[in-house]
Amino acid sequence: MSYPSPSASDPSLATSAFMVPSVEATSDDEIASLPSESADTSDLDDFSDYSDAEEEWRESVEQLELLLTMVIVPFVGKYLGRKCAYWSWTRFMEWKYPVEVEVKNQAAYKGTGVVAALASL
């Protein structure tokens, strides 16, 4: 079966950058000259098992990539970003406003914390 040339129907298509090359019909001699092999069914089964395993492997790798890019990386980035922000803000505030806190009575300090916690209930 031969297809008509696109340039015959429309001359502007002949110069198009997206032209698909024309498909030439193969002759019977070319088909007859191809080697014919009888394939064993066991060879086909092995190939089928291999391709199924390879397809499953690719699917599992794709799922791991999705898990990594959609779940793990954002959570790790969020965690590390917050840690970095808290650390840098603490360092800045200690540099900008150097304040030392001295607790003279530990029992009163802890008691105040307990009373404040109970008052919030």
Automatic annotation (TrEMBL):
GO terms for cellular component: mitochondrial outer membrane. Residues 26-53 are annotated as: Disordered. InterPro entries: Mim2. GO terms for biological process: mitochondrial outer membrane translocase complex assembly; protein insertion into mitochondrial outer membrane. Residues 40-53 have a biased composition (Acidic residues). PANTHER family: CHROMOSOME 1, WHOLE GENOME SHOTGUN SEQUENCE, MITOCHONDRIAL IMPORT PROTEIN 2. This is Uncharacterized protein. It comes from Aspergillus avenaceus. The lineage of its organism: Eukaryota, Fungi, Dikarya, Ascomycota, Pezizomycotina.
